[in-house]
Design a protein that fits this description.
2 strands, disordered C terminus, 493 residues, 67% helix
């Protein structure tokens, strides 16, 4: 039993570790996370081997994952070039298959292939854990608590005017938040976590848990939303508002449907007003000056000469050149400068990310790889939505609430990826991998209760017996169905 649970606890611990280790944006933190997830994945595969059981992964998701792994490691093994960062030139390599595609920067592709291998291992482990209710709850609870703790840290830093993480001497600039150097990454992380916090708050009302639990989850929602407002990322704040409106619409639907009998509409309205007031108050105390200054510059920055818009144009030029297999995982920083010539000095500095994850995916992975990623991520959304619609009449409201929470979390990060690079941050990648695994494994929790299956089976069997008896009666009109009477009736009486 300890061998079965060991990789599960390692994954839970990794979820708590990833955001606090500077979001795993530092090389040492990322290396530790990769080793951590590699150990968990290896132990999980070992338990599958010992149990002689196939990994509990949906066949479509498994096929997409295997395709990504095969492409990544093939591009590494058949790399065309190694890049010399000192002399700024490509060094040709001897390819195993000269006619086949290969990475343009073997070292970067190797590092990225290794990272994605461990993340896909975490995805598969999540699919296995999702079969058990207690492990599903531990995964989601860990994400919710970790997100709340990061929000609290960021608010404390703003209140104290800290120039870096409270325990670190490094100056992280004016737009850092919590443990993240870049405020947009912190905002994207919060938008992954806080919808799950709201899900626990909704479940606490549906299940009528203790009052202190409701108060605790409500306070966590307030902290997360206030942190989103204080954080200077405009995209994160706008998406946070969108997700909040989504939650408001879902709650109104539950009230209209009578699924919240313990919460009258008047009480719900008053509670929402109080919640909004608390969020605004906490944000005002923590400080809104940086966020407000950035919003004032929005109209000025929204021009055709905006560097991010220019970078997107460069990426659109790169996509046809990337072809079906791309330039290789992780090769964007190396290849991007060779396509910026027509913009001259307008594209200053070194671009490590495209600030548009979908274009960057097409550049690094090509059309085939991007298709596999779309099947893996968007397929999870579609599959879980299909199951929720199919079984909506028998699903508990708590299950519907947590499913909606996961959908909102995924929606937030996938929309943010249109204007930034949250899906290039290891800590956010891990959270997305876990949530994707939960959605692909929704057949274990978005289903009718077991007693419902038994009742349906009994009703079906009873109907078959009735139809069988009717058929016998129609075939033999004079034959009585059931036990024969003790004496023959007097027909002439």
């Amino acid at each position: 039993m300890w061998l079965v649970n060991a990789p599960r606890w390692l994954l839970v611990a990794a979820l708590a570790y990833a955001p606090w280790a500077y979001g795993c944006t530092r090389p040492w933190a990322l290396a530790l996370l990769i080793g951590w997830l590699g150990l968990a994945s290896g132990l999980w595969l070992l338990t599958c081997l010992l149990r002689r059981a196939w990994p509990a992964v949906h066949p479509i998701a498994a096929a997409a994952g295997v395709a990504l792994l095969a492409q990544a490691w093939f591009m590494v093994g058949n790399a065309r070039f190694e890049y010399d960062s000192l002399q700024l030139q490509f060094l040709p390599l001897t390819q195993l298959l000269p006619w086949a595609p290969g990475s343009l920067h073997r070292t970067l592709s190797f590092d990225m292939a290794l990272q994605f291998s461990t993340l896909l291992g975490a995805f598969g482990l999540t699919c296995d854990m999702a079969r058990h209710r207690e492990w599903r709850e531990r995964l989601v609870l860990t994400i919710a608590v970790a997100g709340t703790s990061i929000a609290l840290l960021g608010l404390l830093q703003r209140c104290t005017n800290a120039t870096a993480v409270l325990w670190g001497p490094e100056d992280m600039g004016k737009t850092f938040f919590a443990t993240y150097r870049y405020h947009a990454n912190a905002g994207a992380f919060l938008n992954v976590a806080w919808p799950l916090v709201a899900g626990f708050l909704a479940v606490s009302f549906f299940q009528r848990t203790a009052r202190w639990q409701r108060v605790a989850w409500a306070a966590a929602v307030v902290l997360c939303l206030a942190a989103l407002i204080v954080n200077s990322s405009r995209a994160a704040a706008a998406l946070g508002l969108l997700l909040a409106l989504g939650w408001a619409g879902w709650t109104v639907r539950q009230l209209v449907g009578g699924r919240l009998p313990s919460l009258p509409p008047a009480v719900a309205v008053v509670s929402a007003v109080i919640l909004l007031g608390l969020v605004t108050s906490v944000a005002a105390v923590a400080g809104l000056d940086t966020s407000l200054r950035r919003w004032k510059r929005f109209g000025v920055e929204l021009t055709e000469q905006n560097p991010r818009l220019l970078a997107s144009q460069v990426c659109l030029d790169m996509v046809p050149q990337a072809g079906w297999f791309g330039f290789g995982p992780g090769t964007f920083p190396t290849t991007f400068p060779y396509f910026t010539e027509r913009f001259g000095k307008q594209m200053r500095g070194r671009w490590l990310q495209a600030h548009e994850d979908y274009l960057q995916t097409l550049i690094e992975w090509g059309c085939l790889g991007a298709t596999s990623w779309a099947v893996l991520i968007f397929g999870a959304l579609g599959y879980s939505i299909y199951r929720s619609i199919r079984h909506r009449a028998t699903l508990s409201v708590s299950a519907q609430a947590m499913h909606f929470a996961i959908l909102m979390a995924m929606l937030g990060v996938l929309l943010h990826a249109l204007v930034d690079f949250p899906l290039q941050i290891a800590s956010i990648q891990l959270y997305v991998a876990v949530l994707t695994g939960l959605l692909w494994s929704s057949r274990h929790w978005l289903r009718p209760p077991r007693h419902h299956h038994h009742r349906q089976h009994h009703q079906h069997r009873h109907g078959e017996l009735q139809r069988h008896d009717s058929a016998i009666a129609s075939a033999h009109p004079t034959r009585a169905i059931g036990p024969a009477p003790a004496t023959a009736p007097n027909v002439g009486a």
